[in-house]
From TrEMBL, chains A, B:
The keyword Amino-acid biosynthesis applies. The keyword Translocase does not apply. Its EC number is 1.2.1.11. CDD domains: ASADH_C_bac_euk_like, VcASADH2_like_N. It catalyses: L-aspartate 4-semialdehyde + phosphate + NADP(+) = 4-phospho-L-aspartate + NADPH + H(+). GO terms for biological process: 'de novo' L-methionine biosynthetic process; diaminopimelate biosynthetic process; isoleucine biosynthetic process; lysine biosynthetic process via diaminopimelate; threonine biosynthetic process. Pathway: Amino-acid biosynthesis; L-threonine biosynthesis; L-threonine from L-aspartate: step 2/5; Amino-acid biosynthesis; L-lysine biosynthesis via DAP pathway; (S)-tetrahydrodipicolinate from L-aspartate: step 2/4; Amino-acid biosynthesis; L-methionine biosynthesis via de novo pathway; L-homoserine from L-aspartate: step 2/3. The active site is at C129 (acyl-thioester intermediate), H249 (proton acceptor). This is Aspartate-semialdehyde dehydrogenase. Belongs to the aspartate-semialdehyde dehydrogenase family. Phosphate binds at R100. Keywords: Amino-acid biosynthesis, Diaminopimelate biosynthesis, Lysine biosynthesis, Methionine biosynthesis, NADP, Oxidoreductase, Threonine biosynthesis. Pfam families: Semialdhyde_dh, Semialdhyde_dhC. It comes from Sutcliffiella cohnii.
Amino acid sequence: MKGFNIALVGATGAVGQQMLKTLEERDFPIKELTLLSSERSAGTKVIFKDNEYTVQKAEPDSFNGVDIALFSAGGSVSKLLAPEAAKRGAIVVDNTSAFRMDPEVPLVVPEVNEQDLFNQKGIIANPNCSTIQMVVTLEPIRKKYGLSKVIVSTYQAVSGAGAAAIDELHTQTQAILNGDDFTPSVLPVKGDEKHYQIAFNAIPQIDKFEDNGFTFEEMKMINETKKIMHMPNLSVAATCVRLPVVTGHSESVYIEVEDENVTVQDIRNLLEEAPGITLQDKPEEQLYPMPAHSVGLNDVFVGRIRQDLDNKKGFHLWIVSDNLLKGAAWNSVQIAETLTKLGIVK
Amino acid sequence: MKGFNIALVGATGAVGQQMLKTLEERDFPIKELTLLSSERSAGTKVIFKDNEYTVQKAEPDSFNGVDIALFSAGGSVSKLLAPEAAKRGAIVVDNTSAFRMDPEVPLVVPEVNEQDLFNQKGIIANPNCSTIQMVVTLEPIRKKYGLSKVIVSTYQAVSGAGAAAIDELHTQTQAILNGDDFTPSVLPVKGDEKHYQIAFNAIPQIDKFEDNGFTFEEMKMINETKKIMHMPNLSVAATCVRLPVVTGHSESVYIEVEDENVTVQDIRNLLEEAPGITLQDKPEEQLYPMPAHSVGLNDVFVGRIRQDLDNKKGFHLWIVSDNLLKGAAWNSVQIAETLTKLGIVK
């Protein structure tokens, strides 16, 4: 079996570590593995398949001879180095938002639009975590019953905001249980002006605000969903909320289909057979998805499927997935696998 | 100033204690206060305005001479004793779900439908906590711009499930931080078969499931909203989710108004002047409502008001309130105040 030369930029970060774990679990055929990072983390030792690797500082020439370069080191690193990697013949799978809305860059969730990979010009974007789990669920429904409207309210875990946010949740929670004082300094957005308590709270801000009153995270869900599903006119709205959950994003999603004669059982049957989805929908047994039960699993979990009581084309769903896996590391590695499966990387 | 004879059933519970605090803070004109409970809690000593009261076992004759009886001791106690209290001339304000959908019983949020109090026949129902904060916000919008559709996803605190649920959240959170084992035994629903982790999790079940796949909590929001707002044909859908938050319910609400020419600023101006509401909506200053900032306050907090990007009649709102106050104790005491204001209790 042929192996590929793989580079990973951001090898020491939370998602980078998950990518390594996923490459290992999937037994991805690697000939040579190059682990890269910013100057700050260069020199760190990392174990992969029982071998020790030293993380090197990412530079343009780091990508010479690389087949696939996985990027997860922040948007500014991607903007600088992804074109350099592509120029040197690597195909970049970028987990940041840097290129997602670039019309030249395919934005790919393999279960939904793997064919878009054929349009790649050296850079492929991995969508936002909260978008991925939603489109995996919506695509089979759109295909069979049509789709005209989506309204989503999210329940998002702090690990989406990185290791510092996880630390803040843990430290702050302990402080509150002890009755101690604390000063929020990371959430909701590290680079924004004000920081708020996340422990035992819910913060309706993820990423910064746009002029239209939506946050950038909400606009990502809206715009990325339309792009991935090739539905520029789909009506999509999002409200994104950060919760005191470490890992696992949940979504309360209302959709309207075009077919007038769809039942809850039809949608259950459809999603039961759909790729990448585990149906957990037996209210009579209190079976429904929850973030705590999604951690460490690659699938998207769907349940609480109900027909709207006023609109027979309306349905409500509850969608949960591990935001570090299908929302990031697993979807990126899955894109890499699909590139080899489709013969785009040989 | 005339004083009233007040009885409080469930004086030792979480909401009962809040009711006493609220009666004290509002300086409600009380001539005689009778504190009642189940047999189990009878004998407990309670301080009210520097006087010690002994809680007595609630019996039919406990209500002789009582003007207003506040009930918050569970549905079965209300079903048994509220009619007995009414028979003896008391007006009952019942905080349980026992009589809410009874066509003979007004379901009242004073900011919305205080006139319904004139139709009382001895029992008045206090709505479900998550319903109250939503209708306080929707009523001024309906009145000025019309209202045709409501889709709500809730983010609900554990205190709505009682003191045992608060204990479970705290104990379980500490166990997880310590890396210890734990066995859930209260949430999502004490009387249901399975119990799940609430700490660092989100549970999409509040109350038991109905045959249509909605939970009883969701159906309460749907049916109570229509009844309180006198809109039997309003389209309402709800998804109710329990969070690791102690106090303060949040709601992501999508509405459609009838007027075609409403702006976000119109709705802000309207809600700024509306009774019982504090507007917190300055995204440019990261000002929006959060449960941690609502605790101990009577108002309903509204922010994140956005016009839908695809439907100019569609708006998104984020509504937060202390579920033990406006959601329970304060709304009940406010009904009592309104009964005296309107001269229904003299």
